[in-house]
Amino acid sequence: MEIPPYKEASLEETIQRKLDQSTMILQNINAYFLLIDEEFIVRDTNYYSLNRLPAPEDGVIKRVGDLLHCRNAAAAGECGKHEQCKLCGVRAAIGKAFCTKEGFKKLNASMNLLSEDENRVIPCDVSVSGTYLDIHGKGHMVLTVYDVTELKNIQRLLNIEREKSISADKLKSAFIANISHEIRTPLNAIVGFSGLIATASSEEEKKMYMDIISENNERLLRLINDIFDLSQIESGTLNFEYSEFDANDLIRELEGIFMVKLADNPSVDLVCEANLQPIMMYSERHRIIQVMANLIHNAIKFTKSGEIRFGCRIEGTDEAFFYVSDTGIGIPKEEQEKIFSHFKKLDREVPGTGLGLTLSQSIIRNLGGRAGLESEVNKGSTFWFVLPLTVKGKTAK
Predict the structure, then answer these.
(1) How confident is the model at residue 335 (pLDDT cuts 50, 70, 90)?
(2) Largest CB tally within 10 Å, which of 152, 236, 327, 346?
(3) Is 99 exposed, middle or buried (0-12, 13-18, 19+ CB in 10 A)?
(4) Tens digits of per-residue pLDDT, 33-55?
(5) What EC number is given for this enzyme (predicted)?
(6) Gyration radius (Cα) of the chain, Å
């Protein structure tokens, strides 16, 4: 078998290969060059070859905005004719460069371009550089246009993440400061009154000290549990144990707990609105009790007189509506959207970390529900949440 003789590439083939390589490089870096004159008419460009488009027919004039499919140029019929063209940063930079016969570098501009079919507007970020040339006594300019949209989008995302990170750091610092105060307060009470018990002069005084210690023990334990539960939810490690139960039994259980707590406060009535008909659910019973208990605790803290109502009812055909309503101080309209934010406290004089509602909302979302509130200043608040009667495809019997 004969081996064909080696054929050296011709000059034309070598030049074409080099041009193809240059085209591939420019395609990869999203760059165009445009040779223009002082009237912004494009005399030469690689735009068509890079995009594999046919070049315009002889005699068809294309200016910079026409070539790039500028939205304003298309609307006015020609680059430079639109009212907004007077405000175009790219046009102003090119005009100045022609006047001074100097180039410019890396002008960043945001443009609204039209798609090839002119049916869609495409936001685009470009970086433009210009080099002034004198060709046969006439001013020309070589523009290099880089499409930096992707880079700018990455920068915008990084800026957003940076702002989120700064906000998270501030939030963490505020949380640590708040938690430190909230932990120290019950601990001081526990330590202080534990020492006073030994010096109490009567059983009545001893009982008073012990009640204070017990109340602060409960407050401290609730605080630690909230921190632990919230950290588990955010790390995705909190366990949810599902079972079947009657929501009315859950409501009555809460009534028994909080009737004892309000026994010494006759100015506030606790009203449990349980239904006679069963409300069978398949969900996380203990977490629902935790959320309801938190809402009732909050209602007690902010209600000096009047009543607190809580209960559950069927919503539609497949949801349970839980609510806690009070006649307390209420929440201003502008603060209501922030109420479920991390560590948000509306009243610094009232004990608490602001963790409870954040934790409650996280639990409700994990159970496939939603939460909200209705409130009016000095008239009271109603906190509610809706949960599906069934979870994970299970059906209550």
Answers:
(1) confident
(2) 327
(3) exposed
(4) 888 888 888 888 877 777 677 77
(5) 2.7.13.3
(6) 36
For residues 165 and 161, give the distance between their C-alpha atoms in angstroms, rounded to a whole number: 6
Helix axes 149-197, 203-235, angle to 10 degrees: 160
Q: DSSP secondary structure string, 184-203? A: HHHHHHHHHHHHHHTT-SSH
Identify the CA nearest to 360 among candidates 304, 284, 272.
284
Q: Yes or no: say if 250 and 226 are a contact pair by the CB < 8 Å rule.
A: no
In the block, tokens 């209960």 appear at 311
What six digits make up the tokens of 314?
A: 């069927």
Residue 2 pLDDT exceeds 80: no
- DSSP state letters, 360-381: HHHHHHHTT-EEEEEEETTTEE
231 vs 100, which has greater pLDDT? 100
* Residue 109: partners with Cβ closer than 8 Å, 6 or more residues away: 88, 89, 90, 125, 126, 127, 128
Q: Are 182 and 161 in contact (CB under 8 A)?
A: no
Residue 287, burial from CB neighbour count under 10 angstroms (0-12, 13-18, 19+):
buried
Backbone angles phi, psi at 144, to 5 degrees: -110, 120
Summarize pLDDT for 381-391 with one digit per residue, the tens: 999 999 999 87
Pinpoint the alpha helices (H) of the chain: 11-28, 47-50, 64-67, 71-76, 89-100, 149-197, 203-235, 247-261, 285-301, 333-336, 355-366
Which DSSP string do the residues of 22-60 spell out, in sequence order? HHHHHHHTTEEEEEEETT-BEEEESHHHHTT-PPPPTT-
List beta partners, residue 32.
145
Residues 389 and 320: beta-carbon distance below 8 Å: yes
Q: Which long-range contacts (CB under 8 A, 24 or more apart) does 116-124 make?
A: 116/69, 118/69, 118/74, 121/71, 123/149, 124/149
For residue range 53-106, what is the model confidence (pLDDT) as tens digits?
Answer: 777 777 677 888 877 778 777 777 778 878 888 888 888 888 898 898 888 888
105-159 confidence digits (pLDDT tens): 888 877 777 666 667 777 888 888 888 888 888 888 888 888 888 888 888 888 8
Backbone angles phi, psi at 227, to 5 degrees: -60, -45
Question: Which domains can be identified in the chain, with CATH numbers?
Answer: 11-149 (3.30.450.20), 239-396 (3.30.565.10)
